[in-house]
Amino acid sequence: MDNPVPTRATVPRPSYRGRLAPSPTGYLHLGHARTFWIAQQRAEARGGVLVLRIEDLDPGRCKPQWTAAMLEDLRWFGLRWQEGPDVGGPFGPYHQSGRRARYEAALEQLKRSGWVYPCRCSRREVAAAARAPHAEDEDEPIYPGTCRPEAGGAVRAADGPCHWRFRVPDGQIVEFSDAACGHQRFVAGRDFGDFIVWRKDDVPAYQLACVVDDAAMRITEVVRGADLLKSTARQLLLYRALGLQPPAFHHCRLLTDPSGRRLAKRHDDLSLRTLRLHGWQPEQIRERWDEPDLIAAFARVPGR
Ligand code: GLU
Q: Which residue minimizes the CA distance to atom 5 of ligand 1?
């Protein structure tokens, strides 16, 4: 019998899988809540699944008590996930600290294919690599190439502890279409340089772990802050080098304080924990988070 021509109803469509990927390094603030809320809305609108992944790779900064506080605050705010450390799921574990073997395998693959080289430069750069670069001053400076082997030259074997750097194809244009920010274009070697994928203290870097996990968890769209647009360009190079299919991207605008600084841990008054203690309800928060002056908008205790 001939194979029936697949109809619209029988062709399996890749279903939407989004994720929330917080790092347990402090209380979540309004900016996280807004980005995660958008992620949840996009997943719901597409009848998709939302995954919670705890990005706890940096032992110096991530603490279990922050994970517990985060889960509580996320739930209080009205966020729900269908897969995660507390609810399980087919793509666990959902803590990055439990996924090390996957990152090691990816690093080995990059070594074998000559995409990475050992490097012994500056501690400061290495320290920053395990976390997502959220501000200009946290972004890796363009690497001057001190340890970079000659083009086409053999990659030296690592001799003692070193970190591993991804060799970007200089001058190559990395482009993608972002669902929120539109067309994006970066030049490898000019907008960003060779970046760290594994730290000398044996901690996998954010860029590598994020790609490995988003691919392994079959994420179809990554929703995160616009400060990570350049990281997306780096990650697209990693997807290609590892032979993985990249997801789509939606980078949300950042919430800032009146001086234009991105919300961060220093804005303790705008943490979900503080707002909740001051009597704010999640719906009231969502009504106000697009106001231009957030500090003023949330300074008053509601109902008083
Ligand atoms: N754990 C990272 C952060 O909280 C996630 C970045 C991302 O969504 O890729 O900054």
A: 21
63 has catalytic annotation = no
Strands 49-52 and 17-20: parallel
Question: What are the Cα distances from residue 98, in Å, to 53, 124, 147, 247, 275?
Answer: 11, 26, 31, 23, 32
pLDDT one digit per residue (tens) for the chain, 304 residues: 444 544 455 555 569 999 999 999 999 999 999 999 999 999 999 999 999 999 999 999 999 999 999 999 999 999 999 999 999 999 999 999 999 999 999 999 999 999 999 999 876 655 667 788 887 667 778 898 999 998 766 666 667 889 999 999 999 999 999 999 999 999 999 999 999 999 999 999 999 999 999 999 999 999 999 999 999 999 999 999 999 999 999 999 999 888 888 887 778 889 999 999 999 999 999 999 999 899 899 987 776 5
Domains of the chain with CATH codes: 17-116+208-300 (3.40.50.620)
Q: For residue 22, which atom of ligand 1 is closest to its CA?
A: 4
Q: How far apart are CA 229 and CA 69, in angstroms?
A: 28
Residues with CB under 6 A from ligand 1: 21-23, 55, 132, 210, 224, 228
In whole angstroms, what is the distance from residue 82 CA to residue 59 CA?
27
DSSP 215: H
Are 30 and 272 within 8 A, CB to CB? yes
Residue 212 DSSP label:
H
The closest-lying atom of ligand 1 relative to the alpha carbon of residue 231 is 9
Residue 304, both tokens: 């008083």
